[in-house]
Structure formats: C-alpha cells, structure tokens
Design a protein that fits this description.
mainly alpha; 78% helix; single chain; sensory transduction; olfactory receptor activity
C-alpha cells in the first residue's frame, strides 16, 4: 500500500505542480478547435474527442488483464514509427534526381512525402493509445482487485482449509486509528479501500486527460493529412499562377497545423 500511496502522491504532485501548464494545454486545444473552419475537419477532431471520451468510460467501467510484454512491444513499435516519420520529414527537401522535373511536379512530390510522414506519425500515436490504456488498466487491477481480495485471505483459508478456530485477520497496511482494530476491522478496511479507490480515481483522471491530449494530437495529424489530400480541390477554373499561389498557402496551413501538433507532443513530454 505504501508503494501505491507514494505513486498516487507523485502523480498528484506532477499535476498540481504543473497545473498552470496543464491549463495552457487545454487552452491550446480550445484554440485549435477555434482555428478549424471546414466542417469535415471539425468532424474529424470531434470523432477523436468522442473516442477519448469512450476510452475514459471504458477505463472506469471495464477491467481486464493486460500483459507488460505487449506494452513494451507497443512502445518499441511506436518509437520505430516515429523514427521512420522523422527520417521521411528530413528527406522531404531532398532534391536528388529531381532537377529535371518541373517546379509543380516537385511540389507535388514534396506534398506526397509530407503526407506519408504524417500518416506514419498517426500510426505511431495510435500505438501510444494502446500503451497508455494498457498501463492504466494494469494499475487499476493491481490497486483495486489484488489489494481488496488480499484483505479477505483469512476468510478464504477458513473455507478451504479450516482450523479449530478462525484465523486472525490483519490489515495489509500500517495505520494507527487509536481504536481496537480487531473490533472495527471492517470499518478500517472500508476506509482503506476507499483511499485506494480515490487514489485510483485520481490516477485514472490524470490518465484520461493524457489520453485526451493524445487523441487531440492524432486528430490534428489526421486533419493535416486531410488537407494534403485536398490541396488541389476547387482549383480547376483558376489560372496556373493563382493555382500555384493557393496551393502554397494550403501547404503553409498544413505545415502550421502539423507544427502545432508536434509542439503539443513536446509540451506533454516536458510535463510528464
């Protein structure tokens, strides 16, 4: 229990010490929502927000076992995908063997490269979902199920292997209530279990917020990908010069929303 308490307190310390920074993160998310004008883009970010909400409901209502090996594999795979995305972004401006093509074709190739890098980052962030979800499920199981059932171990042993007299019941955590612990065993146990539940709720709330941030980042990357796929939409009736200017502006918007998503990733890493 002491380890759980230390962990709970460390999580709460991280949250309270960075409360202003966390508030800024939520403000940035609100600003990102306000920047979106296209209805389809709003639907994308709303769908990811809904996914984060469903994950929160799932974490607080359904509990099942996760294996640490899978968490490790998800982390390694996500890191590999991010490394590939970084490599692709570095090669966006690589113009080797591209001197013979026109500027318009060159821009098209650059857009395709950026879109592929963004798609790889999206896949990496989806794997991050699985990592955090599995982590908090395992934590919830350890803190609630194991701790709660262990308190009733003497009762189970009396049923399985009964003795001439009932086994004494001991609390697995040390606390001084200045009352007879044997007489008020269930009252003290209820207090201890409530403490574990409240602590777990705090950890889950923190984890749910983190999942919400990651969900927002995924949505921003998805919107960047959507904008890249529709760079040339509604440009059939404009001149080549105007088309080139509009495409450049749209690319700037794509890079800007991609930059905001990456900055949010870095901000989350600083707070964690």
């Amino acid at each position: 229990l002491k380890l759980f308490i230390i962990y709970y307190l460390s999580i709460l310390d991280i949250v309270f010490l960075n409360i202003r920074q966390i508030k800024r993160l939520f403000e940035r998310i609100q600003a990102d929502w306000n920047l979106l004008q296209d209805e389809h883009e709003r639907e994308i970010i709303a769908s990811y927000a809904e996914y984060g909400r469903l994950i929160t409901i799932f974490l607080t209502s359904k509990i099942f076992l996760s294996i640490a090996t899978f968490i490790y594999l998800h982390i390694k795979h996500a890191c590999g995908l991010l490394k590939i995305a970084s490599y692709r972004m570095e090669r966006v401006m690589d113009m080797e063997n591209m001197q013979q093509i026109s500027p318009l074709e060159r821009e098209h190739i650059m857009c395709v490269r950026i879109m592929r890098a963004v798609n790889i980052q999206q896949k990496a962030m989806k794997f991050e979902y699985n990592v955090y979800i599995s982590y908090f499920i395992v934590l919830l199981i350890l803190s609630l199920n194991v701790f709660g059932l262990f308190q009733f171990l003497p009762n189970f042993l009396d049923i399985i292997a009964p003795l001439n007299e009932s086994r004494e019941r001991y609390l697995s955590f040390s606390a001084e209530y200045f009352i007879d612990q044997k007489q008020y065993f269930y009252l003290i146990l209820t207090h201890g279990l409530l403490a574990v539940y409240i602590g777990s709720a705090g950890v889950l709330a923190t984890g749910s917020s983190l999942i919400g941030f990651i969900s927002h980042i995924c949505a921003m990357l998805k919107i960047a990908s959507y904008r890249l796929e529709h760079l040339s939409d509604n440009l059939s009736s404009v001149s080549e010069l105007e088309k080139d200017c509009i495409i450049r502006k749209r690319i700037i918007n794509v890079v800007d929303i991609h930059r905001r998503a990456i900055e949010l990733v870095f901000d989350l890493q600083k707070k964690s």
